[in-house]
Amino acid sequence: MTFMEPLARLFQNPVRLKLLRLFLFNDDMAFSTAEAAFRTKSAKDATRREISVLIAADVVRKKTGRAGGTAANKKFLHYDALKAFLRETTEVREVDMLEKLKKGGSLKLVTLSGLFSGAIESKLDLLIVGDKLDDKKLAGAVHGLEAELGRELRYAAFSTEEFKYRRGVYDRLLRDTFDYPNRTILDRLGVTNTA
Question: What are φ and ψ of residue 78, in 5° steps?
Fold first, then answer.
């Protein structure tokens, strides 16, 4: 059983749950069916069917005009409560996150900030350091996390050598990441042992 199954059962299926997260966590945006399917890593037919259910429930609405698409309906009677519930219950277990990210290379350091720590000021949500990193596979792994979370992640990936260099010259991006609230879930470089 995966960590998302109980909620997926409550909402009848994982596609509907992912779409709810996508629309409510990005309530200032409208998505075409194709975009929603891509962002949630779901089949287009299933996405189209679930969007129809959400429109019928008045949780989302079709946008008219040139841009079109579907967006969250902020006038839905229980909008705030539903959004708060989804925000409170949306998480990816660290072990699952690391399992996905390992597909991108040999990981040495993974630090969560921004979205994961509540630090809005942080420029990154995810810092990844490793060797033999495959940009395409890493991007795919991050996209998988985004599909589960319903949000885009701001991330940076560095080789161990580049990370050490940037740390040595007090790189602003790294400073911002470590100066704001963060949580390191993998540290094979001893970064969390030093101040």
Answer: -110, 30
Report d(CA 166, CA 171) in Å as an integer.
Answer: 5
Decide: pTM greater than 0.85: no
| Structural domains of the chain sorted by starting position, each given as residue range(s) with its CATH number in brackets | 5-89 (1.10.10.10), 94-193 (3.30.460)
pLDDT (tens digit, 0 to 9) for every residue of the chain, 195 residues total? 344 456 556 677 889 989 999 999 888 899 999 999 999 999 999 999 999 999 999 999 998 877 779 999 999 989 999 888 888 877 778 888 999 999 999 999 999 988 887 766 678 899 999 999 999 999 999 999 998 888 889 999 999 999 999 999 999 999 988 988 899 999 999 887 654
Handedness of CA 180, 185, 189, 193 (dihedral sign): positive
